[in-house]
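Board work, copied verbatim: Dehydrogenase/reductase SDR family member 4
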Amino acid sequence: MAMAGKLLANKVAIITGSTKGIGFAIAKKLALEGATVVVSSRRQENVTTAIAELKKENLPHLGVACHVGKEEDRKNLIEQTIKKFGKIDILVSNVAVSPHFGLTIGITEKQIDKIFDVNVKSSFLIARDCYPYLKATKGNITFVTSIGAYKPFVGGGWYSISKTSLLALTRVMASELAVDGIRVNCIAPGLIKTDFSKGLTENETIRNKFLEEIPLGRLGQPDDCAGAVVFLSCDQLSSYVTGECISMTGGIQSRL
Ligand code: NAP
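↓ predict structure ↓
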């Protein structure tokens, strides 16, 4: 835990779903700012690949396989972190699923359950499980929601509804945990080029329709989402910011 002088020196950060895409970009940026990052996702081979990347740049890390929907995995993720580093300062809850694309009326109950189990319930549960440690460090939590929280995606109705719920979760937890000195915020990415969004970005018609709406005229990259998380995770930069959401959408409007 070296890197004195950096914004997040001596901080320990858990980032869920962080072996690729937006989660990995966030982990890398937090590490470049001095944090020791705990990288995780369901598949051990993805964890191994991600930590090899961090190793190449000499960035302090730990890799732990963790399915956020499994209680024993969340417990193990936290235990391994505490065993190795003794504390948790930052939690970034990044995992989401979207098992249904199409008219909202066509979704099955099982698909709705999966969306809410992973996107909302597991996001809360990992935050709840980390709470005693975050209380000890007066740490902070960032949830990853979506532009869909404000402007529901055509074809991704229930996914969007789950992401709007994360806005509410952020506000509820921010007001309840303020007394413990824990700040809780979220980020809302627009259309970002990752495996998750391939169905949209690799379909020319859909991609062009999105591009027409993006004032900056390009799709986002995972790294476009990471700087805001450094800001929200860093007390020197955002000590009076809680219950907020920062959007990175290339200009698609997300509020009044
Ligand atoms: P991605 O590139 O598909 O990466 C997802 C990551 O999460 C992978 O590391 C994956 O690894 C892991 N993961 C998936 N399910 C998991 C689970 N149940 N438990 C633990 N880890 C899991 O996705 P992304 O585009 O970066 O999306 C990250 C977040 O950004 C999501 O919350 C998404 O809703 C949000 N977002 C994305 C976009 C976009 O356009 N891409 C836009 C707005 C918001 P394993 O397969 O090894 O588990």
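Residues 16-17, 19-23, 41-43, 46, 66-69, 94-96, 118, 144, 146, 189, 191-192, 194-197 surround NAP (CB under 6 Å).
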